[in-house]
Amino acid sequence: MPQLQPMKNTDYPLGYWQKVTLSIWLIALVILPFADIEIVNFDPFLELSLMTQGLMAPDFFATEYLFQAIIQTVNFAIIGVCLGLILGAPLALIYQHPIVSGCCSFLRAIHEIFWALLFLQVFGLSPMTGILAIAIPFAATFARVFHDIINQSSDRPLESIDSRADIISRYTYGKIAQVLPQLMAYTRYRFECALRSSAVLGFIGMPTLGFYMETAFKQGNYNEGAALLMIFVAIIGTIRYWCPPKLLGVYLVIACVTLVEIPAVDSSLLVRFISQDILPPAFANAASFAEVQWYSLYTWFSDIITGQAIPGAIATITLALLALAATHFITLNAHALASKHLCPVPLTWLGQLMLLIGRCVPEYILAFIFLMLLGPSMLPAIIALAIHNGCVIAYLAVRQNNAIAPQQMQISKFNQFNYHIMPSIYPNIMALMFYRFEIIVRETAVFGILGIMTLGFYIDSSFSEIRYSNALVLITCTALLNVVIDIFSRRLLKLPQTSLASC
Amino acid sequence: MITIDNLNLHYDKTSSYNTGKNIGKKKASTQVIFDLSLTINEGEKVAIIGPSGAGKSSLLHHLYGSLQGRAALCSQRQGLVDNLSIYHNVFMGALARHHWLYNLINLIKPFKQNLNDITALCQQLELDQPLEKKVDKLSGGQRQRVALARALYQQQEIFIGDEPFSALDPLMTSRLLETVLAQHNSVIMVMHDRELAMTAFDRVIALDKGRLVLDSKQQSINLQQITQLFQTSAVA
Amino acid sequence: MNTLIKLIALCALTISLLVSSNASATTFTFTAIPDEDESQLRTRFEKVALYLEQKLGVKVKYVPVKSYSAAVTAFRNNQVQLAWFGGLSGVQARRLVPGSQAIAQGYEDQFFKSYFIAHHSTNLTMTDSFPDINQKTFTFGSKGSTSGRLMPQYYIEQYLQKKPQQAFKRVGFSGDHSRTIAQVQSGVYQVGAVNYKVWETALARGKIDTNKVSVIWETPAYPDYQWTIRAGVDTEFGKGFADKVQAVLLNMNDPELLNSFPRSSFVNATNKDFEPVLTVAKKIGLID
């Protein structure tokens, strides 16, 4: 028998997305030893059984003014989204300007809760606080995504339009009309997000579902909490039945009418907030500019940076990177489960329901539940972020991949899924994931309120100690961190613009 | 009306436009028009013919660019907006005649006057489709007529067309060509059909490999010459 | 660029329209966060509002809030004129609105205390001296709470001579007294600090498994919850209004109303009673 020639070393270089995937997991593995993911819990079963009991017997009548809370949740979301559209859509047209995009990414980087905490000082517990807290970050998001979507439209219709026509007419007919369906679809998706944000604002006192949800979970009234969660999931799951785009205008009018009354705004509060509250103590205490103690200003600032901002930022980034890897894991599994290309149809319904629940339950509540089960490390936050974001991405990916026609080949569903569906959808999933990374960083803030030492923890502390100037410095740090991450990840990955449209 | 002198055009790979400016500077671009000189007078109806890749479209877009504001373009690429109805696509021709607010309102609720005008125009172009139909639901020939209607609706004195009838049958082509010629003072059109170009236009120019090879104004040309031109080009 | 300027101008205009001058408060508004059982807040406290309305002869409204800091903000912004504050939040509020007065406190609040509770696995038991909780995991209640945070932290710093972050292996803020009990009971944290009244009530209701969690130390007494009335109510609602409110609160003896707080009765209080709280808050750096 002739000796077989040893095969030449066949080189098969890693593909782009393989490299990206590998590096996500590599980074996660490298920082894992430094992260605090210890499981410390001796008796999780007592709390677990209480939660299960609550889930089994939800009490829909335990919440006072439940109907009002539902109405206000929807109202804040509708008005917030509309205001966000009014502010954000024009910005999309000038988004290429670096100042505009910089400002937008700064505004986006601040979590709704912190916007609300800031506005709380000026407007008090007024609906204005909630609406603006939704509208401002949403406007910035609309500006960016609308800009991306409009950029994808073709320039050809513009060629044939008379150049003497004014720019508004040319732009609406030649560019925006092309992508109107995408813009509408995205707005609808954001409406879902706004409902979530609106509920989350309840955690800090807005009269939405979150107000009662937080109380119920905090006090261990799991029957009430489970009922509120179910109501909330049902509201989001049925958006398309109760809020078709045509009725949005009608709903907006209803929302404005049924909104809780807006107390008159005291302009002196705004003046005080700007001229006093947010000034560093060295300025606020000094009678004149000459009396400012520059040294105390310096120590104040450096204490915040070294004592809070830097440790907070490190924890934030660690948490976000680990959550990114975990999100990747959850996305792939959840996506497979709900894909009609892999699973039989009845099973995909179950998968869809899971995705719905996963993306509706606020991360705060998820983290809260896991905190009781796993102990107070970063682990509950990682799991909560991964479940929430994984389900959002998987939901969007399933929507895309159900549109792919199955290949006319005699291969098993499993092979078809791996060789046809996954390769076509994977770049989109990854692009969505990196888009969500910005959101993950933002959302780590919420866990600060739960006691995980991210930047959000220190911001929350500053607010509860009534040190608004500290809070403002830390919020600015958070926003800058996000802007840097945004620039960095875009540069590093040169993300394909095309797939962002659907997220 | 327009005179071009020693024109050199480059096809830039990064953009869809032909640029006449950065001659010889960009390495990624290939030259499509070489030292072309041409004068077109007011009132002339000019047909441009030539094998594919001869630089006809590039020349046409250059002419359109130089005649900005006076000419209506019916491009080969059509540039229809798929999400809009026939009505709105045709109305795009009239954007310059109205205030932007008028145009925006018209996008939501079409004005009666425009509806009547566009209905008449579509009838003229034998486009018997409901005006509210989205253009992505139309056939190739129907789409071409929507693009043609939009160019006509601009009501300019000069019409620039890049094979605007390529998807239509010969009989309809000659009927519509008649309409176009009748409604415009000057017409510059890239034609696919050589015989029709010879019979219906005052002047025929032929391009080959980016150079002007025949001009009926300078010399009398016949169909044979043209056929020969296309054959040699096909061999090469 | 021109478009940008126009946009900014438009936004500024909108905001200036929204921000109309001075707020008026014709109704007397109050807020309260009870230290235990925050469910059904509005239903319970609207009864208190009704009581005050009948006795005071002005329109009274209750505003539910989520946290002590939100209550302080509302008080400072004149969105509430009367508030049932914790010891610390009361001190903060009165510092921010000079001239505001503490007018009543719960009977129990004159000698309030916190319990340190521990999971059975720590093998810590009730002692009179400060327990050895070095390098354990520890949870406070809410960040702005007097009984769940301020006083426990003060005693920790007194006895251990370290900041909690250095003294313990892990420090948490459960956000709520009931949560603190649940977390220590399930072993999420080894030790916690809790409002004694919340502990006693939970114990009486059988919600605590004493085999798993028990009290290991109690703090010395300190003043806690109190009613604080805003400076300037006399000009807004008539001379002597603050005194009238005080009298009405002290005379509140309907058990149903008192149970909302929950206190057995209200007794007289002055700003001076809460000076120990202010001193402690300054010592641990919560107030500059």
Give structural notes.
The complex is a heterotrimer of chains A (503), B (236) and C (288). Chain A has 503 residues and is mainly α. Chain A has two domains: 13-42 and 278-503, Orthogonal Bundle (MetI-like fold); 44-268, MetI-like (MetI-like fold, Orthogonal Bundle), CATH 1.10.3720.10. Chain A is 74% helix and 0% strand. The termini of chain A are far apart. Chain B has two domains: 1-70 and 156-236, P-loop containing nucleotide triphosphate hydrolases (Rossmann fold, 3-Layer(aba) Sandwich); 80-155, no CATH class. The longest helix of chain B has 14 residues, at 140-153. In chain B, 37% of the residues lie in helices and 22% in strands. In chain B, strands 5-6-7-4-8-9 form a six-stranded mixed beta sheet, sandwiched between helices. Chain B has a three-stranded antiparallel beta sheet with strand order 2-1-3. In chain B, a hairpin with a 2-residue loop joins strand 8 and strand 9. Chain B has helices at residues 56-66, 86-91, 100-108, 112-124, 140-153, 170-183, 194-200, 223-235; strands at 2-11, 18-19, 30-40, 45-49, 71-74, 158-162, 186-190, 203-208, 211-215. With 236 residues, chain B is α/β, with parallel strands linked by helices. Chain B contains eight helices and nine strands. In chain C, helix 2 (41-56) links the parallel strand 1 (28-32) and strand 2. Chain C has 288 residues and is of the alpha/beta class. Chain C has helices at 2-18, 41-56, 68-76, 87-96, 146-160, 164-167, 177-185, 196-204, 233-237, 241-250, 255-259, 275-283; strands spanning 28-32, 60-62, 82-85, 101-106, 114-119, 137-140, 170-173, 191-195, 213-218, 226-229, 266-268. Chain C folds into two domains: 26-109 and 223-283, Periplasmic binding protein-like II (D-Maltodextrin-Binding Protein, domain 2, 3-Layer(aba) Sandwich), CATH 3.40.190.10; 113-218, Periplasmic binding protein-like II (D-Maltodextrin-Binding Protein, domain 2, 3-Layer(aba) Sandwich), CATH 3.40.190.10. Residues 15-25 of chain C have low confidence and may be disordered. Chain C is 41% helix and 17% strand. Chains A and C meet through helix 2, helix 3, helix 9, helix 13 and helix 20 of A and helix 1, helix 2, helix 3, strand 7 and helix 7 of C.
